[in-house]
Amino acid sequence: MSFTLAIVGRPNVGKSTLFNRLVGKRLALVDDQPGVTRDLREGEARLGDLRFTVIDTAGLEEATDDSLQGRMRRLTERAVDMADICLFMLDARVGVTPSDEVFADILRKRAKYVILAANKAEGRAGEAGALEAYALGLGEPLRLSAEHGEGMGDLLHVLMPLAEEFADQAEQHQPETDISVDEDWDGEEELPIRWPTIDKPMQIAVVGRPNAGKSTLINKILGEDRLLTGPEAGITRDAISLTIDWNGLPVRMWDTAGMRKRAKVQEKLEKLSVSDGLRAVKFAEVVVVLLDAAIPFEQQDLRIADLAEREGRAVVVAVNKWDIEDEKQEKLRALKEAFERLLPQLRGAPLVTVSAKTGKGLDRLQAAIERAYETWNRRIPTAALNRWLVGMLEQHPPPAPQGKRIKLRYMTQAKTRPPGFVVMCSHPDKIPDSYSRYLVNGLRQDFDMPGTPIRLYMRGQGNKNPYKGRREKNAGALTKHLNKKPKGR
């Protein structure tokens, strides 16, 4: 998805009808009665060649208290803050109301991009209301009919350049991943790792549940209160990136909205969409999963860490609010045991205790991030890999399913960021997952690659070994060169 579009406006102007048309399904309830939508609803929209995320919101109410209407308004304001583009919808048959003018002022201050749309503009009944919309100062209004599908081409025309702009931004921030390795390289030493520079800083996403202390942690690293913090959960509403020099290490750090399970709108902790946080994980090279020491490793923490591993990012787990923990040693042992048990796919990943409030442990966090980044970029010589593979086969040979003996002929590293290895073998489809895990765990331990995602691919190639005969061929060429008679004799 290239960008997020939030549809906002007064109740009963046709927001849910347009949402259903963009997603191509009747996902949102539609009725003539105002205020049917009370919740945020996300969908995958399709308009021409564009693919994007669309959010249907509750109608903007003027209430600001803790009533249901007040809570619905705050939830809609969240959607405005986290969306890339806001589509502000009016009812062209009613015209511009005082409420529309209030909400237009809010959007001018809070929204990044605003598209003004006059809905129900089919026929002559909506002409006057569409003309009135110019007075809001939000540009030329699009004349739409969400119910009949009119004006969709005009909407596509307006969205297209914005989509290209967001695509360019995404390409600039997108880190280099799955970099191919020259398989002909057979050196005995590892190649030096390319470290971040001012032009290409290390990209770090700080993710976790709401109120874990993500913004406080980044403020402490910055040395100033750049990000809004407070005791309330869910203050941060969208992914914010800051480029800083962290004790000589150039980094672009992403502060993200708290990721948690869907909550009811009536609860005090209003639910947040996690789409921006997920996008930040994809932009990152190192993901810091920040836990609350009081309630570590809840289900959502595990999902966030697993997402980072599946995306192939280096992972560091940081336990915040350590300064208020009483039984530190006992708690640390319990944390490490729970980490190994609940996240075996990240076995050995750094687990660091910090206090975002006091700044204690930030030096250990930086060292852990640098170590994780180095491991994520590591490249192992083919010769060393094949010597290691022989030892692993002698220690524990592969099984022989249905009496078919599996031969693992040779191994090479195909990619870095994260490390990816290819094992050429017979019957690759017969190798059980348990044996692949045995090899991955061995790679982690013997080549000092704790915690980083490791990709292992089994590939069949018959009896062909591209490395077989290479030395004999080189030796033959040398002998031929030495036996060659000099010219003129």
UniProtKB/TrEMBL annotation:
Binding site for GTP 1: 9-16, 56-60, 119-122
Residue ranges, annotated region (Disordered): 458-489
PROSITE patterns: G_ENGA
Classification via InterPro entries: G_ENGA, GTP-bd, GTPase_Der, KH_dom-like, KH_dom-like_a/b, P-loop_NTPase, Small_GTP-bd
Residues the entry annotates as binding GTP 2: 208-215, 255-259, 320-323
Membrane keyword on record: no
Keyword terms: GTP-binding, Nucleotide-binding, Repeat, Ribosome biogenesis
Name of protein: GTPase Der
Lineage of origin: Bacteria, Pseudomonadati, Pseudomonadota, Alphaproteobacteria, Rhodobacterales
Annotated gene: der
